[in-house]
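Wed. Picked up where I left off yesterday with Menaquinone biosynthesis protein MenD middle domain-containing protein. The coffee machine is broken again, so keeping this brief.
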Amino acid sequence: IDQVKMFSSSYIRWFRDIPPPSDDVPVSLALSDANHAVTLTKQMRGPVHLNVQFRENLAPDGGPIRNDNRVDSVTKFNNLRFTDASGFLDWSRSGNRWLNSHYSNNNSLGSTMEIKDLIRKSRRGIIVTGNLRDSEHVGQGTDSLSSLISQFAQTIGFPVVAGVQSGALRRESPVIPYAEHLMKNPMIAKGMQPDLVIQLGTPLISTEIGGIIKSNPAVRHVLVQQFYPHERADPDHTVTHRISSNIGTFLKGLMSDIESSGTVNCYSELTPLVFLGNELRKQMPDIIREAGSNESTGSGVTLTEPEITRAISEVLNEAEGKSTPMSLFLSNSMPVRDGEFFLYPEGNKGATSLQPLLRNDAKFPFSVSVNRGASGIDGILSTATGCGDSSQPTTLVCGDVTTLHDLNAFYGLTADHTPSNSAQTVTNANRLPLTTVIVNNGGGAIFSFLPIAKHGQDVGFEEYWGTPTNNFSFKQGASAFGLPYKSATSFEDFKNAYRSSIESGGPGIIEAKVVDRSTNVEVHKKITQGAIRTVDSIINESSVTHGVRLKMKLPIKRYTDDRGNVSK
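Structure written out below (tokens, as returned):
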């Protein structure tokens, strides 16, 4: 009998092949698997199949492995390392469930009361947002959900780490600008120590916030998102409370309960991070520019990948209010990560040091879409073409390798009205409003950030990981589909080309030729170092000139009102 998936998939609700106990597999994985199995059994009303693997020696005997005469076949198992997982010690001593799950179809009052109690007891709470998913909003647009999350954050006095997938939320005042760069600062990463994390939506792109959560085993991690049977949504096994509900519906109910009970005296000692982020926001354009100022290739290329994200943000700021809302589609690999790091709206230049970004002055794309998952970079252009097939102008940012994987998708920008026997250039009469920005770094840039890159030709790095694309002409490719084409090698060239494409109202391709991949790694390092130095300087200066300290209790409710004025 083949034990793996021995029952029909039409009969069981879920299958899991449980790995054998190992020093390399934390106990939190087994506990999370067990919890998920029980959850699906209850929610989907049917059986699950857990195939549990064991190794010889089955009994807890050390020494040689029975019936295995190979070299070094010795049983090794360190139970202390196996159980050294975030949250395990607290769970094993408490007698509580590994994960407290609540669903929209039962005990919604109980879930609201439990989360309200966590908020009331918290002193260092924070809100984290991932992909909010339009399908969950039940009549709410992304913009209205962003406003609701902002209102919730101000009600409980928690700052917000808004992932790039949150789209318009990044223009709201409780959001910590450039949170990824703040959390890379050792002083902040070590000093945050949140006691409550409320996560809205999944997955997260940020690795910094995940590391901070894992390093604080006592943290209560609440995940709120719609119930998806085959989606775990907890890769680090740190979630302690899962609320399977529509995000907007749950937040409205929770806020109503908090306000009706008079429990509005909430705050978070982490709120000064909003101030630090707004101060860093003012310096980031200069930090990004200086990081690439001395970088150039022999061909005169000076454009860097972070500058592409900055230029898009600046142009979208200019375009806001002049046209229909803009959408962005960020490809996997580097574009979505650069979006996470650098895609924030411009600040109010006339604001005082303690004044956050004003809602009416915050200009940002209406929505940001990504296609995260096992497909990787496959099908990105096709997906973005679907997103652009509407009256809402869309910008796709993708890499050169990604483009080659799905090149024929460009035909979808021309096929609707262009005669089959014509190679005519697309006009406004048959356009789809999709601007495609191809970041051409001559291959797969993200692998240059990994340890494998230092081994070079010893592992065939260029051939198997770098995968150069220098022998392909994107200009000729655009011509084959009759699409407008422009190229850019500097920040100003790219910004002008992108602005022109947006204003045209039709499809277009911009090839952004950037510095080489190894230089790109150095540019990112310099930006990180520059941000760390800047934050250190802000902290030191603020403690002297403004009296603002990281441990100061500074609720958002106290220093901003509907007009953006600073409260006394």
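Quick read: The CA atoms of residues 220 and 515 lie 43 Å apart.
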